[in-house]
Amino acid sequence: MNLFNVNRFAKLTMVSLLALPAAVQAETAYVSNEKSDTLTIIDTDSLEVTNTVDVGMRPRGIIFSQDYKYLYICASESDAVQVMDVATNRILHNLPSGEDPEQFALHPNNRHLYIANEDSAVVTVVDTESRTVIAQIDVGIEPEGMAVSPDGKWVINTSETTNMLHWIDTSTHELVDNTLVDQRPRHVEFSKDGSLVWASAEIGGTVAIVDTTTRQINHTIRFKIPGVHRDKIQPVGIKLTDDGKYAFIALGPANHVAVVDAKTYEVLDYLLVGRRVWQLAFADNHSKLLTTNGVSGDVSVIDVNKLKVVKTIKAGRYPWGVVVKP
Amino acid sequence: MRFIATTTKSLCWLFLLQKSAFAAVQNIDILYVKLHAEMSAEPLLLKQPADNKTLAGAKLAIEDSNTTGRFLKQHYQLTVVEDNNADGVISQLKRLLSVQEAPGTVLVDVPENAFNAVSEVIRGSGALVMNISSREDALRQSQCAEKVLHTVPSRAMLADAMTQYLMSRRWREWFLVSGNSDGDKAFASALQRSAKRFGANIVEQKQWSFDTDLRRVAQKEIPLFTQHDDYDVVVVADEQHLFDKYFPGNTWLPRPVVGTEGLVPTGWHWTLEQWGATQLQNRFYSQFAREMTESDYAAWLAVRAISEAVTRTKSTASDVLYDYLLSDSFELAAFKGRKLSFRAWNGQLRQPIPLVHPNGLTALLPLEGYMHPVTDLDTLGYDKPEVRCNMAK
């Protein structure tokens, strides 16, 4: 394993040295592999794996600092959020994260990280500069999805067994309201203007559209794929295109990504990807969408303009999260 | 950091207490009836069932529901009634039911032969019965009753799950061995039904004689006992595990052992870690310092089902909860990879069944390919057309 990495590293260093001028344009995707405790790094232009980096145990949620200098990694079983120097792929230090961090969101102030601690029913707020915990907020059982509103006013956390979106006021770090949704809410995503929240319920099989002002559900999206039992349609990751046209929703063990009209909420298409698709990320100016497929251990690449799957890239074991650096 | 957590928590509680002074808190009292079973052979001290067997699952679910309840101004509480004899438990139960403000829910954890008597008393008070202990098929097939729901899988469900797996491996020829308790005989019948249903063939059926002390002579006795021309598996039905443990790796022909030992169908097992199950296992372990068993899980399910119904209907009335639980709207996430719901025609909670050996999960049933017009979960256990009783009011 080590030998393999060393060889690979040497080879890659040579390749990247030779190809340096051309590499500037391409974006770079980072995929966390839950079971192999690594990150797979993918060049989004060539769609090839360029490096594999060892990180802490059970890496799941990953997120960049706003300047893309640091990558924050939820190393769930190391009970730490690791901070990786993106330039060198080295882990710089750990942040105090609370137990079993799974997902998190970075405030627009680029400083406060809101971390869902799955085992202890709290959201931990960490100051990434002073590396201290500045608040812990009690939420429901098995906190999971995290999102910060574009204006930085709200943090939403989903709790999987309590079945709620918890609304946290970032100025006071108080939990101020809850929205009951369907079974096992996994992920929340704000619309670009922050007026709506898309929330997936994995076991409920639905996506709720929640109004940020009233904190009530406006609409519920349901899915139906011929030949796939409805219980296997389990929405998790959600991504919205910047132009407000599409929402992409990963449907877990249904092995499809739903394409939804972001205005009418009509499901337009289902794209077949790898097995147990969980998280999504856009690349190359929203022209590509990458999906992590846990069971098949790969990443599918969707052409956003053609709405077609164009490539499958082998990753590590149980790819979980994916983020893209321009 | 632990300090911060505690402080924040207590502040939060203070805040909630203040808040609750202004808004009414919904109190949900759940009764838990436990009648201690007599064991036909006392197991080794090391292997005694935990004192809080089953009850621990209910306690965890009460805690889970109260965490959710904080946000909804609901408070759940468990009152335990327990005794060593049926009359004692029934008279205590009657006393408590007579003073209940309104009919609530009672979790029933009693030996199978006492179930009907206890259930009648509860139903007579208008309360809802949650069966968390009896696997008896008759309760789901010929004696199902209004306001009696089952979160524990029936023997037929367990047998069907195991049989689906055996058929997928083409292990069709069975050598069946059963013990002499009522439960063993009932499980053997369930296995016979499953064999017929899925096309397996019982080539030999024997009852264990209990003539020898297997602790000394297992290696001599079991191979002789299992002598036969050929078979694909040895199926054991020994619910109290008096002899089944001596079978694996010890049969006349080198064949797998399945049933109550070897590969075992069960409602829950510590080896489940997919679908967020690790979180439930960890929560249980950190509280009770032992594995969560299938009876703990059945109790957990019962309380979670009630609290889900209370949350969605905003009611605590047992009639409202019962109707909601049997309706199409009810769904429960329960760490088995898909939503669970009740069969409206016999009150059984549909659920996937793990097939496990002591240290690993072999399969989760139903298997893909077993088709059903409504849901493939109904390929496990008595299906609607086979049920001869009526749940209607």
From TrEMBL, chain A:
Signal sequence segment: 1-26
Keywords: Signal
Keyword Signal: yes
Alphabetical list of InterPro entries matching this protein: Host-pathogen_enzymatic-act, N2O_reductase_N, PQQ_b_propeller, WD40/YVTN_repeat-like_dom_sf, YVTN_b-propeller_repeat
Pfam families referenced in this protein's UniProt entry, alphabetically: Cytochrom_D1
Lineage top rank: taxon: Bacteria
Keyword Ion transport (UniProt): no
The protein's name: PQQ-dependent catabolism-associated beta-propeller protein
Annotated organism of origin: Marisediminitalea aggregata
From TrEMBL, chain B:
Domain Leucine-binding protein: 54-212
Keyword Signal: yes
Keywords, alphabetical: Signal
Cleaved signal peptide residues: 1-23
Keyword Signal applies: yes
Alphabetical list of Pfam families matching this protein: Peripla_BP_6
Family label: Belongs to the leucine-binding protein family.
PANTHER family: LEUCINE-SPECIFIC-BINDING PROTEIN, PERIPLASMIC BINDING PROTEIN OF ABC TRANSPORTER FOR NATURAL AMINO ACIDS
The protein's name: ABC transporter, substrate binding protein, PQQ-dependent alcohol dehydrogenase system
Species classification: Bacteria, Pseudomonadati, Pseudomonadota, Gammaproteobacteria, Alteromonadales
